Amino acid sequence: MRVRIETDGAASAAEIHTSSGFERLDQAALQTVLRWTYVPGKRDGVPQAMWYLIPIEFVLE
Fold first, then answer.
1. Is the predicted pLDDT of residue 58 greater than 90, yes or no?
2. How many domains are contained in the chain?
């Protein structure tokens, strides 16, 4: 997933970077990363909004 993380740690946007091959799993991952709270990246000690790649691995048993 590719996620836009804002300075307050909230995810403001997300998109599928690499599909799992299953639409339902892709949508579940997309909805999940938008609910998470993150630690924002910093430049020179100042929080910055930025895009970040977050790997999501599905294991079907």
1. no
2. 1
d(CA 52, CA 5): 7
pTM, to two decimals: 0.85
> Within 13 Å, how many C-alpha atoms sit on residue 19's CB side?
4
In a domain, 13, yes or no: yes
Is 24 a residue whose pLDDT tops 90?
Answer: yes
Q: Give the 3-state DSSP-derived string for 10-52, with helices as H, strands as E and coil as C.
A: EEEEEECCCCCCCHHHHHHHHHHHHHCECCCEEECCEEECEEE
Tokens (6 digits) for 20:
């799992």
Domain that holds residue 16: 2-53
Residues 6+ apart with CB under 8 A from 19: 26
